[in-house]
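WARN retry 2 of 3 for item q-0093 after timeout on previous attempt; input resubmitted unchanged.
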Amino acid sequence: MRVVAVVVGVLVLCALSAFAGLTAGINLNPQSTVRFVPDWGSVGDWVSGVGALLAVIASLYMVQRSERFQLARDSEQVMLTQEPSMAWLTLHIACKGLRSCTVMDLRIGHGGKCSSLKHALSDRNKGVFPARLEPGEMVQLDWSGRDLIPTLQTICHLGLKNTDGLYFEVVTGISVHRFGLDTLTLEELQTGADAFDISLTKREDGLPF
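OK item q-0093 returned
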């Protein structure tokens, strides 16, 4: 809004300067031009008109700002935080917007392939979905040790050539939110895969294991 006001003010100043310069130029060179006597009383009308224009611009700005705020209120905002550590993976799914959301599923995918992780949740997280979250609330998912095996097998069955581009998808009642796997998360999954002799990518013979 300040930028708009400054721009309009500069334009008004330029217009007045040009008007004054035109008046002086014509009056100082009467032989080549027709004498021009401006009606300076009309300047007030111009200022009034510019003020009305600024009022309209301000109104439009406030309307757009209100619409953006309303859109933010109505939109669903979900955050996924990844916290890998030695033989342990923790995910936090949080509702960060101004409206509640219902998390229906967590998926892992690559390109156009995607698989649900509902069956790969640890025993302490079984039955967590659907999870209704109010603004500011979150659900925590934990895997440790052998808990990771079903998740590793799910990735394996995607038949990937490499793990670059793996992502999590948080599925809610109205949308799907995608989050790329952090480097540390990938490293932790690869460490677990090596420990349990599971290949996350397709072997040269085409077999997943």
